[in-house]
Amino acid sequence: MKIELNDGFVCEVNKENLDDMELVDKIAAADSGDVLAVSFVVDKLLGSETKSKLYNHLREKGRVPIEKVSETIIEIMTKMGEDGKN
User: Fold this and answer.
1) How many domains does the chain have?
2) What is the pLDDT of residues 25-69, one digit of tens each?
3) Alpha-helical segments (H) within 21-65
4) What is the maximal distance between C-alpha atoms in the chain?
């Protein structure tokens, strides 16, 4: 499904990517403060090509802020859930 984020970034995400217990486990770990789990979540949800595009989009002064990545993943998952309700 095509998702456009509030900051204008557009990406394609396969809804089937959400049907993965390992992803759920890592989301729970990230939610509990495990910042290392965030990378796994991004890779599983978006795939390596879209992950790279997202990182380039979010890059500031040569680095990709963890907080911005986390906020973006939450927004993507929220929009995926909203699409399922429509």
Assistant:
1) 1
2) 999 999 898 989 999 999 999 999 999 999 999 999 999 999 999
3) 21-31, 35-58
4) 39
